[in-house]
Amino acid sequence: MNPVVVVAAVIVAPGGRVLAAQRAQPAALAGGWEFPGGKVDPGESEEAALVRECREELGVEIAVGERVGEDWPLAEGYVMRVWLCSLASGTPQAKEHLALRWLGPGDYYDVEWLGADLPIMKTVENLLQRD
């Protein structure tokens, strides 16, 4: 059986800042920090799901860029696929999260990343340092 695909956007702003979102639910994950995104709907491309999720969760339009790594493991039966993105329009708002926070190179780890997102942040840090 194919895994359920979850997509996530690493929204990068000038100065190497990335957007972190604090989970509101479910209770087991509430308060932890993640990259925004969600499940891909049947018949939807992964990139279209990413754009839709950022519109729904953050009220912004994004431009999807480079894929980060391969499949990132989540709970059993789920994988996460991640892209570097940029803001095309709008200002992110916490519509479905407790809070949003822009993190710069000196404070990428000032939040408590969820277990699945921490290795992604480490990979993203390396990608941003090459630019």
Task: Write out key terms for the chains shown.
41% strand; 131 residues; 7-stranded mixed sheet; alpha+beta
What percent strand? 35-45%
The chain-level structural class is alpha+beta
Based on Cα principal axes, name the global outline: globular
| Biggest beta-sheet profile | 7 strands, mixed
H-E order? EEEEHEEEH
Q: Compute the gyration radius: what is it? A: 14 Å
Average pLDDT works out at 95
Oligomer: single chain
Supply the number of helical segments.
2
Description of the molecule:
There is one protein chain. With 131 residues, the protein is an alpha+beta fold. The protein is built from two helices and seven strands, in the order ββββαβββα. Strands 1, 2, 3, 4, 5, 6 and 7 form a seven-stranded mixed beta sheet that branches. The N and C termini lie far apart (38 Å). The model has no long low-confidence stretch (mean pLDDT 95).
What's this entry about, in short?
The chain is α+β, with helices and mostly antiparallel strands and 131 residues long. It is built from 2 helices and 7 strands; from the N terminus they run E-E-E-E-H-E-E-E-H. It is globular.
Blueprint (SSEs and pairs):
Blueprint: E1 4-13, E2 17-23, E3 33-34, E4 37-39, H1 46-58, E5 61-73, E6 78-89, E7 97-103, H2 118-130
Parallel strand pairs: 1-6
Antiparallel strand pairs: 1-2, 1-4, 2-3, 2-7, 5-6
